[in-house]
Specification:
This protein is an alpha/beta fold. The chain is built from eight helices and five strands, in the order αββαβααββαααα. The termini are far apart.
Length: 211
């Protein structure tokens, strides 16, 4: 089955209404056991088409990296925001994800005229916005945001692996794979793990941070 491509239909409609800078916003890492949640925000250039934009989960690592380079080169503006595990535990993952997207949007220069957000509207955002369900698969600017966020988060997880290779963060990027769960069962949670989210198979583990 062919991968669905995101389109600029919503962005173009907004620009026809006079909203010049239309941003997309998305986050990655929401369902992980370890590592940060990372959000991206992108204003695509209306005259610089980037072919192949799609939900980052539907792309290979090589495709994401190539697209991220094009997005960063050709977009009007591009920004990312990172929320680390202690702050995720303090806020909860839902609020941390929304905060990361809001921070990424507010870091854009110029600020957008309209923000198209994947999934949920962003609280405390004073800019016009519209939430789009499954926007990462259908809206080009949101897809672009998901790609730059995913590439940045993968880079951070590889860096965490280089610091502590016991968990295999370079392979599973903090998601609850069998390999990751086995490592946690053996070594316990590290400082990179989120303390407030565990799958049922880990409920009996102690709260001690691994050395």
């Amino acid at each position: 089955m062919a991968r669905s491509r995101a389109t600029r239909a919503l962005e173009n409609a907004a620009r026809r209404l006079g909203l010049v800078h239309v941003a997309g916003a998305d986050e990655v890492g929401r369902g992980c056991l370890a590592g940060p949640v990372v959000a991206g925000a992108v204003i695509l250039h209306p005259d610089r088409h980037i072919p192949g934009l799609a939900d980052s989960k539907a792309l290979s690592a090589a495709q994401r990296e190539a697209l991220a380079a094009l997005i960063e080169r050709d977009a009007v503006a591009c920004a990312v925001a990172v929320i680390d595990p202690p702050e995720i535990d303090r806020l909860n993952i839902h609020r941390a994800s929304l905060l990361a997207m809001r921070q990424a949007v507010c870091a854009l220069v110029p600020l957008p005229s309209l923000v198209l957000v994947d999934g949920f509207p962003l609280p405390d955002l004073w800019l016009p916005q519209r939430a789009v369900i499954r926007g990462d698969a259908s809206v080009s600017a949101i897809a672009a945001a998901s790609i730059v966020a995913k590439v940045r988060r993968d880079q951070l997880m590889v860096a965490l692996h280089e610091t502590d290779p016991r968990y295999g963060f370079d392979k599973h990027k903090g998601y609850a794979t069998a390999e990751h769960l086995a490592a946690v069962s053996r070594f316990g949670y590290s400082a990179a793990h989120r303390r407030t989210f565990r799958p049922p198979t880990l409920f009996d583990l102690s709260d001690t941070i691994a050395d």
